[in-house]
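One chain is below:
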Amino acid sequence: MAIYEKPVRFLMREMVNTFELQNGQSFVKQQAINWFEQNYPKIKKGTITAHLIRLSVNVSSRLHYTPKPGEDDLFFQIDSNHFRLYDVKQDPLPIHSAMNRIVLQNAEMIEEVDLGISSEFAYESDLRDYLSKNLQIIEPGLRLYEEEGITGVEFPVGGRLIDILAVDSQGDFVVIELKVSRGYDRAIGQLLRYMAWIQKNQADLGQKVRGIIVARGISEDLLLACSLMPNIHLFEYELSLSLKQVYPIGN
């Protein structure tokens, strides 16, 4: 439900008109944040950033927010901090589906395959997508964060992305980070940075933030590092595989 009379994605168009943007003219993320703080102060920083992604035609993570073709094709992201208006005549087709994303990122995918890391990224993506739909296996009452069409999958925080931002049964935030291999103690710094960002920019007064790391294996160093952090929980996951013969059918 929209906080104001208009949803944020429509308020973005109002912002564009105020900026009097012309084709090729760019603006920085902080300009958008400042504009909302002055005109619609109830909109949180994370929600503003997520909408910039949702409305940017060339950002693959916009798919987590189900952008509407045409209606949500407003910006082109130049880099993590700069945006301009989408030019339908000059820019590539907007990313509206996973297949569209694969075509547009073909060169990047080839590079990843050469480096031998594409399978690891795909693995983490599958794990993230599964857990985001089944958060109750981590904790009863845990649900995916959602506000005005923005979900907690790859939630943007200060130029980085949280794997999953969730809300528990008490209404408090839970930052979930996934590690497809072993979880080492350096993961703590990353998680704490995300938790602090959410506490400062997204949480309401009195709303708490805690963290969860899900990894294939938890190292002794990570266990030791978390022993003095009661607001961080660690989970290990296991995979299982079953096969069903479909041809030829046995007797």
About this structure: Residues 118-133 form the longest helix (16 residues). The first strand starts at residue 26 and ends at 28.
